[in-house]
Amino acid sequence: MSLDIVILAAGQGTRMRSALPKVLHPVAAKPMLAHVIDTARQLAPRKIHVVIGHGAELVRERLAADDVDFVLQAEQLGTGHAVAQALPHIEADKVLILYGDVPLTRVETLQGLLAQANEQQLGLLTVNLVDPTGYGRILRDANGVVQAIVEHKDASEAQRAIREGNTGILAVPGKRLGDWLGRLSNSNAQGEYYLTDVIAMAVADGLVVATETAQDEMEVLGANDRIQLAQLERYYQQRAARSLMTQGVTLLDPARFDLRGEVTVGRDVLIDVNVILEGQVVIEDNVQIGPNCVIKNSILRKGAIVKANSHLDGAELGEGADCGPFARLRPGAKLGAKAHVGNFVELKNAVMGEGAKAGHLAYLGDAEIGARTNIGAGTITCNYDGANKHKTVMGEDVFIGSNSSIVAPVTLGAGATTGAGSTVTQDVPDGALAVGRAKQRNIEGWKRPTKK
Ligand code: UD1
Ligand code: CA
Question: Which CATH number fits the domain that encloses residue 290?
């Protein structure tokens, strides 16, 4: 059976108190609607229809994709009216309704729901709630067969006592949908066209409403305000932490770990507290990450060590390489195997060969540094002349004395040495010593000035 998915995302989200449309608010750095679209994709639908309204242009711009078709709902007249806007584009024989502000529903739950839907049967996702206030309630007959959904605002006291709530997520036979939506009325407490009224119509037409129950409240929670957004964020992070631990990662405190992107991990990885992983991160076996590190779009090869308070973006650490504490590796920073970068060292577009070292307080930008080369404290590659960037090349086994300024473009041959405090403006041949500083002279018997 073919599948069309409709995602409702037209609502305003007043309680967010935000200029940003609600569905663009992020969970784990990704818009809620993008989570829903990604989940929808995993169900291999024929087409994904997103119903937009408030902030339509921005939503369309941010989330445009080949397999997503946007449908405008100019006025928000209710969930039934919203689905009706997508109707002309629906062709599949099964239709799944999702919500742009309900980001964390598991694919397995939706697969279970879809398995319930066919030409004779609707699949309805319900949830058992401690406090069902605000939710539509599931009405069952004496045999437990679903008859209808009543919205909280339309419900009697007795109906409000029902704890089984409507998640809003349902799977329906596509051929029937048009007929049902066409018959919806808005004579109810909210004056809206309720999608939920479709349930009673299906029952009247002799269809069975089969229910699937959500694992927990969080996987069907929608974010109406920033408090719920924060709850969803924590739930997402708990899941991410659990997933990593089951893959062989030790998290010293799973409650103090944040994943804002995707990570692939090897075994026996150790991650200390307050680590944030962003974008695409690859972590191989036996890597150790110290506390308070931010690691974005980076690759950490086997046995690499990132010490406390380091910030990596677009960096690669080779096998057994280490950096930090307080290292800053910017895009294009690449450490060879066993290379070492210590505290307060910044690298940008700089490649360090195997076993090369920069222990303290240095800026290495647009540089190629050979194996085993040692960069003294206070070394700066002067790569920018105010208009253009230039490259520094150092061969293998170079020794840069402390506080050297290496003015690019410049090449230092293998085994070259620079004296501490040198300003190096010319190429240095292999094995040579470059001294680019004023010669020291001592003035004997020097008298310090005295106050007048
Ligand atoms: C809906 C369900 C309720 C369920 C609850 C779960 C109906 C009538 N009620 O109620 O049974 O328990 O969700 O959270 O469906 N939307 C549009 N266009 C519209 C109206 C809504 O796109 O014209 C979108 C909203 O942006 C929102 C979602 O649909 O994301 C739900 O709409 P909302 O009005 O909040 O429904 P609830 O009152 O929460
Ligand atoms: Ca709602």
Answer: 2.160.10.10
196 lines ligand 1 (CB under 6 A): yes
Q: Per the structure, how many domains does the chain have?
A: 2
Give residue 222 CA to ligand 2 midpoint distance, Å: 7
DSSP per position, 35-56: HHHHHHHTT--SEEEEEEBTBH
Question: Any idea which residue has 């406090």 for tokens?
Answer: 131
pTM: 0.94
Residue numbers of the domain that contains 49: 3-220
State pLDDT tens for residues 195-244: 999 999 999 999 999 999 999 999 999 999 999 999 999 999 999 999 99
Question: According to the model, what pLDDT value does residue 176 have?
Answer: 96
Counting atoms of ligand 1 from 1, which one is nearest the CA of 136? Answer: 11
**Measured from the CB, is residue 417 less than 6 Å from ligand 1?**
no
Q: Are residues 342 and 304 located together in one domain of the fold?
A: yes
- Whether the per-residue pLDDT at 1 is higher than 90: the answer is no
- Contacts for 257 with CB less than 8 Å, ≥ 6 apart: 237, 240, 241, 244, 251, 271, 273, 274, 275
Q: With beta carbons less than 8 A apart as the criterion, state whether 317 and 336 touch.
A: no
- Indicate whether 445 belongs to any domain: no
Per-residue pLDDT tens digits for 62-96: 999 999 999 999 999 999 999 999 999 999 999 99
Pocket lining: 194 vs ligand 1, CB cutoff 6 Å? yes
Task: Tell me the pLDDT band of 31, cut-offs 50, 70 and 90.
Answer: very high
152 is an active site residue: no
| Catalytic residue from among 25, 35, 311, 360 | 360
The string of pLDDT tens digits covering residues 95-132 is 999 999 999 999 999 999 999 999 999 999 999 999 99
Domain check: are 111 and 206 in the same one?
yes
The answer to the question of residue 333 being in a domain is yes
CB within 8 Å of 385: residues ≥ 6 apart: none
Nearest ligand atom owner, CA of 13: 1
Encoded tokens for 344:
């307060």
Within a domain: 372? yes
Ligand 1 touching residue 78 (CB < 6 A): yes
